[in-house]
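To illustrate the input format used throughout this study, we show a single complete record. The first block contains the structure-token representation of the backbone; no residue identities are included at this stage. The design step must infer an amino acid for every position from geometry alone.
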């Protein structure tokens, strides 16, 4: 039976890390309002954590004129969190120059990071390093992105956008390649698990030699994030709070302790 979570002075559990990715500030599909509520929960206690990891693609582009009020509110909330919590931003393929983003967020910038939790070493990296399609076929990638964003705009439930992804053989091959290559990289480096973003597809895959997790995104509903405590990674979905509650996070994949690697 897993040990109980450590608790803060307010009685809220304290995670070793909370992980979000693929926010895409500046995009019309960015769920910025929900993210502000989520970050308030991180800062005020319901989702208290020792570290907040932003696993790539904070921005949709470096054209900051596209940022709306709620998008700037996200940046403001991140800066407030960084006063008390260790915040690490991992560079993604949409993010601009590291020095610009790091200054805006007031946080550490890196290509990857490792956290020790429960005697395990968990690797975090965005995952675009293993996506050869976006570099080989930039025009097709751009067209596919535009179609995906259009489907999200016309259908606020995001059902058709997600259906299009599930029916795309190219997208599914991309998912498999990123999972396969990130696991192989983690094994080579001697890590016990690997967590990526990039694909916008939240998943917990624990049947391989090294468990693989993806934190999903904040551009389609439901939004997802990861929690890490005592060597256990969970994929969670986030629902916008009702007036009588600040945050409600529901586990979308059962927690699975990370196996020892011989």
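Output of the design step:
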């Amino acid at each position: 039976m897993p040990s109980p979570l450590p608790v803060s002075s307010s009685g809220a559990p304290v995670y070793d890390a909370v992980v979000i990715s693929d926010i895409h500030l500046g995009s019309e599909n960015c769920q910025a309002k929900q993210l502000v509520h989520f970050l308030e929960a991180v800062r005020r206690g319901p989702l208290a954590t020792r570290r907040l990891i932003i696993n790539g693609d904070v921005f949709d582009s470096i054209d900051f004129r596209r940022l709306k009020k709620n998008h700037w509110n996200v940046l403001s909330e991140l800066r407030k969190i960084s006063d008390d919590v260790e915040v690490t931003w991992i560079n993604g393929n949409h993010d601009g120059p590291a020095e610009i983003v790091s200054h805006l967020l007031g946080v550490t910038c890196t290509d990857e990071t490792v956290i020790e939790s429960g005697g395990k070493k968990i690797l975090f990296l965005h995952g675009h390093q293993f996506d050869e399609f976006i570099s080989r076929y930039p025009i097709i990638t751009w067209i596919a992105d535009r179609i995906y964003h259009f489907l999200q705009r016309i259908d606020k439930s995001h059902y058709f956008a997600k259906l299009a992804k599930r029916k795309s053989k190219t997208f599914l091959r991309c998912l498999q390649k990123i999972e396969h290559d990130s696991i192989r990289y983690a094994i080579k480096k001697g890590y016990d698990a690997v967590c990526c973003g990039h694909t916008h597809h939240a998943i917990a895959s624990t049947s391989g030699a090294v468990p693989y997790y993806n934190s999903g995104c904040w551009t389609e509903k439901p939004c997802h994030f990861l929690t890490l405590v005592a060597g256990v990674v969970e994929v969670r979905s986030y629902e916008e709070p009702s007036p009588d509650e600040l945050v409600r996070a529901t586990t979308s994949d059962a927690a699975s302790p990370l196996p020892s690697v011989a």
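Structural context for interpreting the output: The domain at 17-257 is CATH 3.60.21.10 (Purple Acid Phosphatase; chain A, domain 2). The chain has one domain: 17-257.
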